[in-house]
Structures are given as C-alpha cells and as structure tokens.
Model the fold of this input.
Amino acid sequence: MTTGHVYIAQSLDGYIARPNNEMDWLLRYNKEGEDHGFDDFIKRMDGLIMGSNTFKTVLSFEGEWPYYMPVFVMSKSLTDADVPEHLRDRVWITDKEPADLMDYLARADWLTAYIDGGAVIESFMRVGLVEDIRLFTVPVLIGEGRKLFGNIGRDVSLELLSTEDYASGIVKSHYRIKKDAK
Done:
C-alpha cells in the first residue's frame, strides 16, 4: 500500500495561502541557507499528488518545474490538455478519488506519496490515507485565506514525533497519525 506524507507551511493563524492563493507572506520567511529538510523529504517520495490550485500556483513560479518525480494533479475541471507540453511526461491530471488513486499508485509500485494542497490533504485525511505531517508554522498572521484543515468529518489523533525551531522563527512540528485515527 502506498502511504501519504504531508510537508506544508501555514501562517500562525492556520492559513496556507491568501484568498487569491498568493503565498507572498511565506516567501518572505524563506531565509537563505536555512534548511527545512525538504530535499531529504522529497528524496524519500516516489511521487507527488497535488490539487489544481497548487498546480496552478507552482506553474506561476519563475524558473523550471521544481519536481523531478511523477506528479498527479487531482482535479474535476482540468484535463491533460491543461498540462504544458514540456511536462506531459511527468504530470498527469486525474479525477480519481483518494483511495482509488492510492490503489492505482500501489499497483505502479509507489511506496510513498507526497500529498500537497489544502483540499487534497483534507480529502486524504478524511479517508485515513495520511501517514504523517511535517507542519511548518510561520510567525505571521495573515487574517484570512485558505485554511489548511477544514471539516475532516471526525477527530484525528496525532502523535508528536519532533519539533524544531529555526532562526527565521519558523517552527516545524512532525506528527504521525495515530493508528486508531485512520
């Protein structure tokens, strides 16, 4: 079975993006030389599952596509034609539900999947398909925007594995989803 892993940042008041999906507040805290462990994390993943808003946001970044691994974009509105031609061998659009997608990926020999994007993370949490969460809390209040967690439909118990603070003021909390919570 493929396991889902989350690596995401939020403002201190729990937002992952502004209402217009802007993440300017986060980029201000990305200090040169401050290693948050993303490279080590991503090396352990077989691929990435993201939502359409995250996909559109990453496409808007300057520079090259940042992921060397296969990427599945969960969307009910996008099609493969919405993927830029130079990414069509690495990025696929899917309308599968989380459990069906994870079954498909397990048959493709994926052991680990990086789950990214608020709605996608929430949908995987709702059906118990997230193994752990690396949550980076940024010391800024933005007041409104897209919340990381909405209605998951049940309590989800977490076990704190570690915390780490950085000179920028960012705090990383690494949680494992308790087995009784799945």
About this structure: The chain has a mean pLDDT of 93.
